[in-house]
Amino acid sequence: MHISSPRAPAPCILSLDIGSTSVRARLYDAEARPVPNAGHEIRRRPQPDGEEDAEQIRELCEETITKALEAAGATDPAAGHIDAVAVAMFVGNVLGIDAKGNAATPLYTYAHAGARSEVEELRSRLDPELTYDRTGTPFHTSYQAPRILWVKNNEPDLYSKTARWIDLGTYLYSKWFDSLDVPSSYSAASWSGMLDRAKPAWYGPILDAIGISLDALPRLADYSSAMQGLAPHWAARWPALANVPFYLAVGDGAGANIGSGCGASGSVALTIGTTGAMRAIVKAGSPTVPRGLWSYRVDAGHELLGGAITDGGSLLDWLHSTLRLDGERIRNEDIAAVEPDSHGLTVLPFLRGERSPGWATEATATWHGVRASTTAPEMARAALEAVTYRLALISELLDDGRPRTNEEPTEIIAGGAAILNLPAWLQMVADITGKRVVTSPDRGTTARGVTIMALKALGVLDSLHAIPAARNDTYEPDPALNDLYQNARRRHGDLYDILI
Q: Taking a C-beta distance cutoff of 8 angstroms, is the pair 149, 121 a contact?
């Protein structure tokens, strides 16, 4: 059932954050503060080939919600009056379902890179520049049009069983509400690379190019639309949620920006978890997208302008295991002990290809200049510097591509466990970009962000930036190091041009 939510004076929100490496559920109060001891998290390991089991992820989500409700019921009376459910998910995913709504294909994620030839096929069928501006995305294997075409070309049996193509959030709601008529949010749809930014609606020319009709995709609505009235099985399992609105799932990047305090134009969020992204919220309606960046929807009135890197925390994990560094993860003291650009290395940090800003699907990683004297911490430091050079390129494109005033801050709000665990990397970002870096104390910025979105949908808040975010540490840029890093960036760029 489709509903509009009434104003709630003091709501409690259950937020579900479905990430690449974990599923978290937590209760939040009307100030978007986590309710103590009212949450649960389950870690998961993503599949390296980008093909996930949608049913397995669904079971993890259901267990996480159940455990969070149990924890809340044991510790806080707020669990008795949950007013809404908010959901964020890792995006760039698509699932084929049959006529009964059951999974007909794996859940394909952004990491599924098989559709390289289909990208070129679409380039030949459509105007790449016009499509970029209309959808906010370039042709790339991380998006859904080439992926659907890849299934058609390479998995004909799976394709023939597929009646519709939907995202993970839509799939979860179809099961929990026993409905085949679950809309996809503008936010989730935009991450597919098939949303017409000007309307918003599914972009007809790209549907024609891959040979599917509108009937093969979910209808679209703003996230503030909601599903309400759980199917009997789920109402019995989650009585506290039986009749509350479940707002449509949004992209985790949108939630992270809002949760870190970057809900207004002018502020830039940097989030590094498994992957990484730098993003700013702008008003919807810009006719062009700076080349190298993407533009996704937050809601009907706002877009998320930014760029993403494929290897963030995943690069750290690879370095740690491959270089056999001490401890459970790469240690800050090892990175800090190496002077900036003192290692003689030039690195291209593309273990899984490149997304923004070069979109080089076939890119691979390179450590140039390795000698017998090169140490593991030097290789790790050089790799993090290289990732930051790519982020600096995104930062510069963001500065060029969004409206700004002289009064707006030139700071970057950083979040995500991968970077917050390494103060030396945070200082590196400040020195290389030349901008102040401020950390967010809340490690759950995505869940906090979708909580704020739910509070706005309920009418409790009048904007996405109505609740200021707390701030922790500040890292000021060193102008002398910025000059040093500019030389290193030029060396990095030259190697990129030669090899990529």
A: yes
